[in-house]
Amino acid sequence: MNRKLLVSIWSAGAAMCMACAIPKAALGNPPQERGMYSPPRLSDGTPDLRGIWQARTTAYVSIEGHPQENGIGASKSLVIDTANGKIPYLPGARKKRDDNFANRGSADPASNCFQAGVPRAVYLPTPFQIVQSPGNLAIVYTDGHAYRIVDPSTVPHDDGIDYFMGDSRSHWEGNTLVIDVVDLGDETWLDEAGNYHSDQLHVIERYTLVGPNTMRYEARLEDPKVYSKPWSIRLPLYRDTSAGARITEDECLEGPDRRWHHLSPSDPKAILHHDYAAELAAGTKNNTGQAKQ
């Protein structure tokens, strides 16, 4: 079956599952760890993660860290469990990363308007929104019309069908939302530097409120085809508390080079790459036997 058709089928089905329940950690409020922030809670006792969140880092350039260049600030590595802050690639696997890096201008799936995948969508330079009610949770992203319906861990994974944003299942561990993500395929990167994964990638995310408007994000990545061992990233996320904060989706349009490009509505310099109205009008004139203008 065509991959795009599968994604469309999944998206339609996911939209009907907004009422899928996320199991509670326990009845009432979970025990409070000493010295830890006590988050606000929904009526079912689970922490309230609702809001618009964003990473304030340039790690989207390279999660292994990078210097300041081309007007983009430096970033330290997000990798927390290797001594040098590098991804533990298998022998030979880093060669593919280097090839990706060399061709990143045209080869990066995200720059070609594919959905970013997990965990990359979390630390893009654009915000995302957590939508939550008792027993329900979804995440909506700015880029690529991406979203995730987070089903409960009691629902089996849809193994064998790859999605750009994966297949997510969740449970609560105290104040931490834990999301298990599989079925990510191999068509997304981890950053602009070409760090990558195979179709065997397994991600376990952890979302923990550490203050009124601050969340700790952690992700453990395991991929026996590409990495020599599991490894993890960690970064803070910040809530947008400005009045009227909302998600404004960007768009992708085909450019004169016949490649697809992001067109952000927040960019005052953004213009349509094609004047489709003019093209339609020209086509209509042709059909009536009149010469094109």
Indicate the topology.
Blueprint: H1 3-15, E1 51-54, H2 93-102, H3 104-107, E2 128-133, E3 136-141, E4 147-149, E5 151-152, E6 167-173, E7 176-182, E8 202-211, E9 214-222, E10 231-239, E11 251-254, E12 260-263, H4 276-287
Parallel strand pairs: 5-6
Antiparallel strand pairs: 1-2, 1-10, 2-3, 3-4, 6-7, 7-8, 8-9, 9-10, 11-12
Describe the protein.
With 293 residues, the chain is of the alpha+beta class. It has four helices and twelve strands; from the N terminus they run H-E-H-H-E-E-E-E-E-E-E-E-E-E-E-H. A hairpin with a 2-residue loop joins strand 6 and strand 7 (176-182). The longest helix has 13 residues, at 3-15. The termini are far apart.
Summary tags:
single chain, 293 residues, alpha+beta, 2 domains, ten-stranded mixed beta sheet, two-stranded antiparallel ribbon
Offer a concise description of the structure.
The protein has 293 residues and is an alpha+beta fold. It has helices at residues 3-15, 93-102, 104-107, 276-287; strands spanning 51-54, 128-133, 136-141, 147-149, 151-152, 167-173, 176-182, 202-211, 214-222, 231-239, 251-254, 260-263.
